[in-house]
Amino acid sequence: KSLSTTDYKSKRHLVKWQAESSHGPKIPYLGMPFMVIQRATYECRHGPLHEHSYSGSMSKKVACPAKAYVKKIVIFTDPAFRVEEKSQPRYKVVKNLKAAIARNENLSVSYRVYVKFPGVECHEGHGFDESDPVNPPSAVPKAD
């Protein structure tokens, strides 16, 4: 999937201050509101075998459950939307931000991409060493 979108106005995205997920990347408290504008999940190249029309080809899939998770966010960096202390009320800031978006104001924003890669322990059915015929080493030349 392409992570090229920068559109936060066409859909109603939830305004957040931090994000914690059991499987996706965690986004810490930034002191500024943000919206998750795009999500993507990537399977290990040895992941589940999907229905395709590959006739007669051998698959290297071994049903590995490992996945990488990606979130692209837009951060509203205007000082009017900053809340430095977590304990400060944020509902007024969110209300003002939503109103500014509804009025199609030109807001100061920044984009970030957060990624959570699976650990080696999440992979199953294949190895990572040089003697593994399913996952050969990279083509980078070795130093003598």
Outline the structure in words.
The chain is mainly β and 144 residues long. It has one domain (15-122). 8% of the residues lie in helices and 21% in strands. The chain has one helix and four strands, in the order βββαβ. The protein has a four-stranded antiparallel beta sheet. It is elongated and about 55 Å long. 10% of the residues are buried. Mean pLDDT is 81; it is low at 135-144. One of its GO terms (molecular function) is DNA-binding transcription factor activity. It holds the Pfam family ALS2CR8. InterPro entries: CaRF.
Q: Major sheet, described briefly?
A: 4 strands, antiparallel
Shape descriptor reads elongated
Q: Roughly what is the average pLDDT, rounded to an integer?
A: 81
Distance between the termini: 39 Å
Strand proportion = 15-25%
**Biggest sheet, spatial arrangement of strands:** 1-2-3-4
Pick out the low-confidence regions: 135-144
Pfam families: ALS2CR8
InterPro entries: CaRF
GO molecular function: DNA-binding transcription factor activity
